From TrEMBL, chain A:
Protein species of origin: Paludibacterium purpuratum
GO molecular function: arginine N-succinyltransferase activity
Pfam families: AstA (PF04958)
Protein name as annotated: Arginine succinyltransferase
PANTHER family: ARGININE N-SUCCINYLTRANSFERASE, N-SUCCINYLARGININE DIHYDROLASE
UniProtKB/TrEMBL annotation, chain B:
InterPro entries attached to this UniProt entry: Acyl_CoA_acyltransferase, Arg_succinylTrfase_AstA/AruG, Arginine_N-succinylTrfase
Key words of the record: Acyltransferase, Arginine metabolism, Transferase
Domain of life: Bacteria
Protein name, UniProt field: Arginine succinyltransferase
Annotated Pfam families: AstA (PF04958)
The keyword Cytoplasm appears for this protein: no
Length: 339, 342
């Protein structure tokens, strides 16, 4: 059974392997053992301690497990940037108009901003490609189920950075047009710098004046707000949830930064709590749904067959056991979006 | 004789002819009769002392008295940017550095500025091709410097001159194509034309307000920043010799250099002297060339004179008539060109 649970220290080797496989562009998952260990420790303490929205340091990391094997990981940070500014480019339109000359031009401008600082951030997402379908949806949305269950731990707005366009050699057209000029570094080198330096530390070297998009080479313009093919599915899962792609982009590779109001996300609006009813067998037509318990440190979410009744949900014993719940407990249930 | 004098209302037809010869390349002299008439009117009123400083603009013509032709024109604006904003790009330095990351990068960026607001401006210089000889160009251009020297209170402490930037024979400017073009639905020649008509402010207001990193511009656009048009190089050389320097300001449309100097430090201003006139039977025909003007504001006149003038200026009767002076009157004079220093 595909299961999502909080990461444990023992998962470190598996996480390290995933981080290595994730390659370029997933900067929130550095292929560096010390950094990953630190993250896991931070996650452990976040799950165990009481927290409220706006506290800042909480970082909740999860793993996707199949038959005892860790095959994916994903996280939620309570406040993007933690105690540092979180940089992004905001897509803006300047109108250059003159009544006298009868000219009216809309000019696309990228404005460096800290707008997203302190928002809840979905990050560190990577699944083994064999689990890109159902596994990815479970892993991604289990975080939203967790947020729904632990609503007071999180603020109002949520973001997710999507990996931007780059080729197999790691060349990013957006980086080459802007960042490279300011760093003399290739994109993969910068990714390496992220391992030892915070992203905002590096962002502070980026141009702080607005960038007029029409001045950029075509291939850089074309990369703005785009999503790397490897991340398309992830992006699709989140846009179905109600995330929007238009307003912000990553300052390094130009990839879309998705934003949403947490309370308006599909999972928040449509997941519901039901009382557990354990049954020996479910009807053949019982649907596979996303099901999660309401615990924090003991959080578990699974993909499982279930049958909804008035206030109850029928699940099989194995599911109940995996979730660690008994009959009469409350569990959160929501429909699959993409299947 | 070649005489510099203020433009007169009766010059309109001949002024228009000159503007036609100037053609498309010369945007500060558009062949638009109403525009030229207004320009003359403003100059006449300025010389009559009827305008406030913000509106004062002095237009001079070089007249070939033998043939009754206008050979060229030039102008001086008392103070730019006081009625409508005056724009330049200032090339500034931005350093992005991190010792920890081993990064130190120095960048040039274009900052839109109004820094020259209130400065005086040398402008609208045009010489008819038939007269581009015999130092007529220097007489035409530098006579303004004598005017500045004689009437410093009318002008700012700093004088600027914008030099035409690089464009090809089709009138296309690499700087415009790399920058301005993206903000307009307009060709450079059109923008340039509007500029000549005094609509520069409108056009400028469509330009990007935020600094532009030079390295984000195409290479051919970067290459022409601060570069004068090949035809303008002699003018730049002359201004440089007089002490004008490019202090990092360029034109917002074609990237051409704007040069500037402190008025009192301009060679022709600093070195000019008032000397009494001594009448002679005939004009001296050899020796050093001197630029000489009278001290009359409304009837300002300037001519070229040969010969040494250690303590007085020797003029023929014809030259004295041209300058409207008599024996013993004070005239202002300066060597036409800076002395070659050993």
């Amino acid at each position: 059974m595909l299961t999502v649970r909080p990461v444990r220290t023992a998962d470190l080797p598996a996480i390290e392997r995933l981080a290595f496989d994730s390659g370029i562009g997933v900067t929130s998952l550095p292929a560096d053992r010390d950094r990953l260990f630190e993250r896991i420790q931070r996650s452990n303490s976040s799950f165990e301690h009481e927290a409220t929205a706006g506290a800042g340091y909480e970082y909740y990391a999860f793993v996707l497990v199949d038959d005892g094997q860790v095959v994916g990981t994903a996280a939620v940070a309570a406040a993007a940037g933690f105690d540092e500014p979180f940089y992004s480019y905001r897509n803006e339109i300047f109108v250059h108009a003159s009544r006298t000359l009868r000219v009216h031009n809309r000019v696309h401008v990228l404005n460096l901003c800290h707008d997203l600082t302190g928002m809840v951030q979905l990050c560190g997402f990577y699944v083994d490609p064999a689990y890109r379908q159902l596994g990815a949806e479970l892993l991604s949305r289990a975080r939203l189920m967790f947020i729904a269950g632990q609503r007071l731990r999180f603020g109002k707005r949520i973001i997710a950075e999507m990996q931007g366009l780059h080729d197999e050699q790691g060349q990013s057209p957006f980086w080459n047009a802007i960042g490279r000029i300011f760093f003399d570094m290739d994109f993969p080198q910068v990714e390496q710098a992220f391992v030892t330096h915070s992203k905002s530390f590096i962002a502070e070297l980026m141009p702080n004046y607005p960038i007029y998009v029409p001045l950029l080479p075509d291939e850089a313009q074309d990369a703005i707000s785009q999503v790397h093919p490897d991340s398309e599915r992830t992006c699709q899962i989140l846009t179905r949830e109600g995330f929007e792609t238009d307003e912000y982009i990553d300052i390094f590779d130009g990839g879309a930064v998705l934003t949403a109001d947490i309370d308006r996300l599909y999972t928040l609006q449509h997941s519901r709590l039901y009382r557990v009813e354990v049954v020996d067998s479910l009807p053949a037509l019982a649907k596979t749904r996303l099901v999660g318990n309401e615990r924090c440190a003991g959080y578990v979410a699974v993909l499982a067959a279930s049958q909804l009744a008035d206030n109850g949900v029928q699940i099989e014993a194995e599911t109940a056991e995996t979730l660690g719940v008994a009959a009469g407990a409350w569990i959160r249930v929501t429909e699959l979006q993409l299947g | 004789m070649m005489i510099i004098r203020p433009i007169a209302r009766s010059d309109l037809a001949r002024f228009m002819e000159l503007a036609r010869v100037a053609g498309v390349g010369m945007t500060s002299l558009p062949a638009e009769e109403t525009w030229l008439a207004e320009r003359i009117d403003r100059s006449v009123k300025s010389f009559a002392g009827e305008l406030p400083q913000v509106e004062q603009g002095y237009v001079f013509v070089l007249e070939d008295t033998a043939r009754g032709r206008i050979a060229g024109t030039c102008a001086l604006e008392a103070a730019v940017g006081l009625k409508t904003p005056w724009y330049n790009y200032r090339i500034g330095t931005v350093v992005h550095a991190s010792e920890e990351l081993g990064v130190y990068k120095r960048h040039d960026a274009l900052f839109l500025s109004n820094d020259h607001t209130g400065f005086s401006e040398l402008c609208s210089l045009f010489m008819h091709p038939d007269y581009r000889a015999n130092r007529n160009g220097s007489l035409l251009s530098k006579s303004r410097l004598l005017f500045l020297a004689q009437f410093p209170d009318l002008f700012s402490d700093i004088v600027v001159a914008e030099l035409r930037g690089v464009s090809d024979e089709q009138g296309s400017s690499p700087f415009w194509e790399g920058l301005g073009r993206h903000f307009f639905s307009m060709d450079f020649s059109r923008a340039d034309y509007l500029t000549g008509l005094g609509e520069k402010t409108f056009v400028a207001e469509l330009m990007p307000k935020h600094p532009i990193y030079l390295e984000l511009l195409p290479e051919d656009a970067q290459a022409v920043i601060r570069e004068p048009h090949p035809d303008t190089r002699p003018a730049l050389k002359m201004l440089n010799a007089e002490g004008f320097r490019c202090e990092g300001y360029v034109d917002i449309f074609d990237g051409g250099p704007t040069v500037q100097a402190y008025t009192r430090e301009i060679r022709a201003v600093r070195d000019s002297r008032l000397r009494p006139v001594q009448l002679a039977k005939s004009a001296c025909e050899e020796g050093e060339r001197w630029l000489v003007c009278n001290t009359n504001f409304t009837d300002f006149r300037a001519i070229l004179v040969y010969g040494a003038t250690d303590d007085r200026v020797t003029l023929s009767a014809e030259q004295a008539d041209a300058l409207m002076v008599g024996e013993g009157a004070k005239v202002r004079c300066v060597a036409l060109s800076p002395a070659h220093r050993a």
